[in-house]
Amino acid sequence: MNINEIETFIFVHDQDIIIKYENNNKFSNLNDYKYVFLGDRQTDKLTNYTNIIFANKFEDNYENYPKMTAYSGWYILYKYNLITKKYVNLFEYDVVLSQDFTEKQLELISENHHTYGYKPYDVNSCFLSNPSWSNGLDNYYFKKYNIS
User: Fold this and answer.
1) Which residues fall within 8 angstroms of residue 38, CB to CB, at 6 or more apart?
2) Nearest-angstrom CA–CA distance, 136 and 89
3) How far apart are CA 70 and CA 36, in angstroms?
4) How far is 79 from 111, CA to CA, in rounded Å?
């Protein structure tokens, strides 16, 4: 197992947050990370950044539905095959990572943990891969916002 098999997506809704984090090297301990910009706020200051995915640029996104922006980000990553590595992290922008996060993550992966949380304890099932949870979430939002 090596670090090149891990990629990270960080969900964010404000261009100034991305600029601040990049200037402060907030995620410098991650090997491969991209921001997923959610919502319809200004992005004019982000033209020189190459590590940003704009969720609202993808067809069939859910950006127009309140409280579905994070889900929209997950959805476009899956639907458009943007996850290219064997292991993936999905983080909100305000996550706080320990300096040794990557080393701990590599250790857990080498012990054959398939899904794990960062609290710091393992989880036994993945929310998105459990149909009784994810199908319920889909059905709730589709019904609530009249999406077919």
Assistant:
1) 11, 12, 13, 55, 56, 63, 69, 70, 72, 73
2) 23
3) 9
4) 30
Amino acid at 26: K
Q: Which residue has tokens 């979430």?
A: 137
pLDDT at 147: 61
Cα–Cα distance measured from residue 128 to residue 134, given in angstroms and rounded to the nearest whole number: 5
Q: Which residues pair with 52 in a beta bridge?
A: 35
Q: How far apart are CA 33 and CA 6, in angstroms?
A: 9
**Residue 52 predicted with pLDDT over 90:** yes
| The residue type at 51 | N
d(CA 70, CA 11): 7
Contact between 45 and 104 under an 8 Å Cβ cutoff? The reply is no
| Average pLDDT value for the chain | 80
pTM, two decimal places: 0.76
| Mean pLDDT of the region 1-5 | 78
- Residue pair 79/60 in contact by the 8 Å Cβ criterion: yes
Whether 105 contacts 5, CB under 8 Å: no
| CB-count burial class (<10 Å; 0-12, 13-18, 19+) for 129 | exposed
